[in-house]
Amino acid sequence: MQTQLTADEQSKDEFFQQLATLSEDMVAKHGKDFSMGALVLAARWIAENRIGENRDGKATSN
Hints:
Elements: H1 7-47
């Protein structure tokens, strides 16, 4: 018996698929070290609420 995913679960699954594809592309072009570093840096920015800031640390207008 196959369980139906909720809309939230389906959305998360789609993001995981996108991350997998992006990760595979990054590894193929720049290697594992770069790819892991980039993903860790992205996680750090999320943890520090820095998403949407420019290089000067100022919020960008969307």
